[in-house]
Amino acid sequence: MAPDMLLALLWKALVQTVHMVTVAGLIGTLIGLPIGVFLANSGKGELFAAPMVNRIVGLVVNATRSTPFIILVVAIIPFTRAIAGTSIGTSAAIVPLTLATIPFVARLIEAAIREVDRGLIEAARAMGASRWQIVTKVLIAEARPGITLALTLTLVSLIGYSAMVGAVGGGGLGDLGIRYGYQRFMPEVMAAVVVVLILLVQAVQSAGDALARRFDKRNRQS
Amino acid sequence: MDTLSDPPPVEPRALPGAPVLGTAATPMVAFRGVTKRFADRAGQGEFVALAGVDYTVPKGAITGIIGRSGAGKSTLIRLVNGLEQPTSGSVLVDGVDVGALDETNLRGLRRKVGMIFQHFNLLSSRTVYGNIALPLEIAGLSRAAIKARVAPLIDLVGLSDKAGRYPAELSGGQKQRVGIARALATEPKLLLSDEATSALDPETTQSILDLLKTINRDLGLTVLLITHEMEVVKSIASEVAVIDKGLIVESGRTFDVFTRPRHETTRALLSGLPGTKLPDAITRRLKAEGSPGDRIYTRLTFFGATAEQPLIARLMSELGAEVNIITGTIDEIAGEPYGSLVVSYSADPAVLARAEAFYAQTGLSTEVLGYGA
Q1: Which of A107, B28, B273, B287 is most exposed, with the fewest beta carbons within 10 Å of its own?
Q2: What is the largest CA-CA distance in chain A?
Q3: Closest alpha carbon within chain A to B130
Q4: DSSP 3-state of B114
């Protein structure tokens, strides 16, 4: 394949991947973060104690997470059509990606919030903080390094998932690799796709790590 | 709720240095028949943390509640700001029943009751300034108002050069100073201290206790502290209550309780203090009843006027018998000088009679420990 043609294809696929990953990551986080905070604090005797709801939400989260992504994509096609108006294309691919992101983010955020010392919740309660203030000023603020790493991991996983939405014409780098590299026997396209994916994941991970380190004040040396 | 949101009518402020005891009629905290039971881990039986506590904490004083771990003292202090609710009975803070408050009013009460913790509980993501500002942000103060309040507090606790540092960069003592400043930020009328010095070394402990003493004296703030360390109570608390198995077994002025402990738990806790314990070799050969030729072992306690007179020299000449000094200590309890001396001398009736006369004449407090060779 001519290099300029390859570049054009790569660029288009990269834009599609970034588009899908960004939108799905954003919406997934917006919905997954509160669920994660709830999961971390709704056990027996906790801040938003609701053990029954906690168990039900936990079950739904587990069910979604244990469904293989490619099956999820196909299984929810009617839902996708209802939301995006179509079941093919990049916009349509965002729906299953988002749906898969929500429980993923929720569990990771739950783990990050659970890392926060319970003594801080007690101190905040003793100061007269409301539950909302405890969540925003204490739990999320203290868990920021962990949350940053969780979201980094989410983005990296999303990049991987986005390779599978070629099945519904979602486009993106993975789709390019499969269609040109594998089905049309163009190893140079496959190689280029892999390199771009590696660079993309590397960039996301490094940025996330750097941000998390900046937020983390726990191991400062005087 | 006016009692909480408005400052109470002006109370007589203590003169610096003068002991402040119950200046106003209402006690700062009153526990009335308080019990607390927890379901135990298996979910079957129950664990009784408090078995019926009646106790009042006077305004303006530093009151210590001391007990071994598991005695119920942590539960007791958490009832005061409603972090725990009693199973039965009530807890009144400045006349207000904590259990009867709704969520909003309880938060209002908590802003008037500061609390410091054994493990400091500072936010690692906030600087010293940010940590002290937190309760004020929670109370909804403006940025400018917060700044005006925090700066003097940082000076008060002696951390002026550390305002921009994070907790991980501070020593344990400095962290507790931040904790104290944070607890004072909302200008509370009561400070709760939950084992605040237990994680600190003895020297740092002393500096934190001195700071608490200063705050109590200069700001007229009532302090209620729980601890398992006699040294802490002895050094700053003017009132003490001893808690054991969920019950207050002994309470009163620290000096009285420590110089004349009545309950065995108090005695056991006190025996850890240096100078109060007899050497084992002597304890072992003491008998309750004397036989001819024995010596009597007596503890002499000096306080008030008797602490400052040359009584030992006079005792020796008055008795006309040889006096052996076994162990002794000179100390200060809640700011009052106190001495304890264990002596032995002949249990001959004539000597004993002269000793009795001498004790009666001087007002020395004595306790016969036993008889031995």
Answers
A1: B287
A2: 68
A3: A137
A4: strand
User: How much is the pTM?
Assistant: 0.84
Span A97-143, pLDDT tens digits: 999 999 999 999 999 999 999 999 999 999 999 999 999 999 999 99
| Disruptive mutation site among A113, A125, A127 for chain B (greatest number of B CBs within 10 Å) | A127
Residues 6 or more apart whose Cβ sits within 8 Å of residue B103: none
Judge whether B2-112+188-270 and B280-372 match in fold: no
Backbone φ/ψ region at B127: left (φ over 0), alpha (ψ -120 to 50), beta: beta
Q: What angle is formed at CA B221 by the lines to CA B218 and CA B223, rounded to 5 degrees?
A: 125
Tokens of A150: 């969780």
Residues of chain A in contact with residue B113, where contact means CB-CB under 8 angstroms, are 126
Cβ proximity of B26 and B65 under 8 Å = no
Using CB atoms within 10 A of its CB, is residue A21 exposed (0-12), middle (13-18) or buried (19+)? Answer: buried
Asked if the Cβ–Cβ distance from B117 to A130 is below 8 Å, we say no
Kindly report, residue by residue over B23-75, the tens digit of the pLDDT: 456 899 999 999 999 887 666 778 889 999 999 999 999 999 999 888 889 99
- H-type helices in A76-117, by residue range? 77-84, 90-114
Give me the domains of chain A, ranges plus CATH numbers: 3-215 (1.10.3720.10)
Q: What is the CATH number of domain B2-112+188-270?
A: 3.40.50.300
Would you identify the CATH topology of the domain B280-372?
Alpha-Beta Plaits (3.30.70)
Question: Which chain B residue has the Cα nearest residue A215?
Answer: B125
3-state secondary structure (DSSP) of residue B110: helix
Terminal-to-terminal C-alpha distance of chain A: 57
Instruction: Compute how many other C-beta atoms are within 10 angstroms of the C-beta atom of residue B287.
Output: 12
User: What is the separation of C-alpha B318 from the centre of its chain, rounded to a whole number of angstroms?
Assistant: 39
Cβ neighbours for B10, distance < 8 A, ≥ 6 positions apart: none
A142 touches B: beta carbon within 8 Å = yes
Question: ipTM exceeding 0.90?
Answer: no
What gap in Å lies between CA B275 and CA B339, rounded to an integer? 9
Would you state the structure tokens that stand for residue B134, as one six-digit string?
């937190």
Residue A15 identity (one-letter amino acid): V
Contact B334, B255 (CB under 8 A): yes
Distance CA B340, CA B323 (A): 15
Distance separating alpha carbons of residues B322 and B347, to the nearest angstrom: 11
Give the pLDDT confidence score for residue B302 in this predicted structure: 81
DSSP characters for B253-282?
Answer: EHHHHHHS--SHHHHHHHTTSTTSSPPHHH
- From B189, B258, B170, select the one nearest B23 (Cα to Cα): B189
Assign residue B131 a region: left if phi > 0, alpha if psi is -120 to 50, beta otherwise?
alpha
Give the bridge partners for B298, in sequence order: B343, B368
Closest residue in chain A to residue B185, using alpha carbons only: A127
CB distance B313 to B341 below 8 Å? no
Domains of chain B, residue spans: 2-112+188-270, 280-372
Q: Rounded to whole angstroms, how far apart are CA atoms A25 and A18?
A: 10
